[in-house]
Amino acid sequence: MTDVARPRGLTWGKRTFLAFALVVAVSVSSAALVALIVGPPLFHEHLLELDRPQGTAEMAHIEQAFFDAGVRSLGAGLAVALALATVLVWWETRRLRRPLDELTSAARRLGSGDYQARVPIGTAGPEFDAVGEAFNSMAGRLDATEENRRRLLSDVAHELRTPLSTLTAELEAIGDGLIPWDHESHDLLVQQAARLQRIANDLNDVSHAEEGRFQLDRRPVPVAELVHQAVATFRPRYAAKGVELTADSERCVVVADPQRVGQIMENLLENALRHTPAGGMVKVDAQSARGEVTISVTDTGDGLTGDQLDRVFDRFYRTDTSRARDVGGSGIGLTISRSLAQAHGGSLTATSPGPGRGSTFILVLPSPA
Ligand SMILES: Nc1ncnc2c1ncn2[C@@H]1O[C@H](COP(=O)(O)OP(=O)(O)O)[C@@H](O)[C@H]1O
Ligand SMILES: [Mg+2]
Fold this sequence. Notes:
By secondary structure, the chain is of the alpha+beta class. The chain has three domains: about 10-115; about 155-210, Helix Hairpins (Orthogonal Bundle), CATH 1.10.287; about 220-365, Heat Shock Protein 90, CATH 3.30.565.10. It is built from nine helices and seven strands. It is elongated and about 135 Å long. Adenosine-5'-diphosphate binds near residues 275, 299 and 331.
């Protein structure tokens, strides 16, 4: 049974019971009163119609007998009706009170941090079900948000631990004179500090992404311009690594936040560069069809397995943790990119023929009619 602290004064259950009981009592008393007022005179009139001498002891006895029998049978009948009605009323108020108690109890548990609290549905009629369903859906959302918050915090703590422990160990070793303060140790410290910086920068975006709220400054932009800008930024780094970068864009326009789309493109081009060995190729292709613009980034690099394809958009997921931890990002670029695409009403997906056979990331954005 649910543990609900009773409010002060009469509870709803008792008030409802008393109200029903009063109705039953009033009905029974009025039925009895009417029977007593109307019955004997009517019977007397019937007796008068008989062609018998009036005012005799026999007649008085007949009238008394009618009155007694009437009072007794009516009294017994009404007492039984009263008892049955009371039981029914008690049972009904109890039945109606239970979902209210359950709702109160679940709301209290939810308020005290138990996000698993739910109310049973289908026990007390459609109106109570509707309230219960609304409550359960609210509790479900709170539960998911709370779970997300907990996972985010533990992921963040996990992410911070590696660079922090590397920094601490390195600093201690230098302090103890175990390793010299030279270029190599300096570079390592700078690298780990940069990694912490990157995580801090990404965190702001990831929390917005988790809640799906980005401030978008949307306007019509030629897709070719977006593609050109992103490609131009990366050209020197691609050339330095020896990876060929080509771009092909149809003449079309999207209504989008150019900075945010630029952020998606940069993440895709950065990933493609990181995962494509020298001599490989990366191709950006933008096309428009059926009210959508599709921008794809295809590389001839590492590729992805089916399992990895499902997970690359997960927060902090990297396929190659050991290498990516030092040279790569924090594994949330694609999480943020996908949320940004969705905030635009579009999508970001990945395909790959398999490991070592390259991959394609496809950004779809709605374009004006
Ligand atoms: N073009 C690609 N080819 C192969 N793997 C990729 C590619 N792009 C992304 N990935 C995988 O997806 C992971 C997540 O990417 P992302 O969220 O951008 O994180 P980050 O770039 O910080 O590692 C990467 O660590 C990598 O393992
Ligand atoms: Mg990335």
